[in-house]
UniProtKB/TrEMBL annotation:
The keyword Signal does not apply. Residues 12-191 form the Metallo-beta-lactamase domain. SUPFAM superfamilies: Metallo-hydrolase/oxidoreductase. The keyword Zinc applies. Its cofactor is Zn(2+). One of its GO terms (molecular function) is metal ion binding. Keywords: Hydrolase, Metal-binding, Zinc. CDD domains: metallo-hydrolase-like_MBL-fold. This is Hydroxyacylglutathione hydrolase.
Amino acid sequence: MDWTQLPLGPLQTNCYILSNDEKECIIFDPGAEGESLVAWLKQNGLKPLAVLLTHAHFDHIGAVEQVRQEFHIPVYLHKEEEEWMENPALNGSARFELGEVKARAADHLLTNEAALTIGSFSFRLFHTPGHSPGSISYFFEEGNVVFAGDTLFMGSIGRTDLRGGNHEQLLKSIHNHLLSLPEEVIVLPGHGPATTIGDEMDSNPFLNGF
């Protein structure tokens, strides 16, 4: 298994491609630059199986339609944000001067913390609200990585001033779910460089007291 980080769009939102030896892959948060992303996937001979969204803010869903239509694959999202894909006021794009973003509703709505298996890829799901009400972190144990979206960053945490954000809830999500993972687990955030659970426990100023 291998993962690749592809920062996309004006906010440089991290799209991640998780692939196996058979060239099958999962796409996390295709946020923008759909044509370039599709071209990259084809150039690398990859066969996408699904799109997994950590949440439905506009900068994480901007290329969903191009990827979904090109490869005919399903999109997964937490039920708490069921209406966000189609609504610029909910997904935040109406607030910023970057153009409204819309996509068709997700094909599969996730409602609980459980296991999710797609092809040969198996994930543990953590509902980690706070940055947004439907934020999900996907723990891929085989690869020792967690796709954390905008919940936890290197040296920082997600903003909580957008619709449905809650600072206290975000800290609880990080503490109860992410910090319970082994310290060597790699955290793949929605923006910026990768980090580890151990490094954030040791040095993240927003997590003092945990």
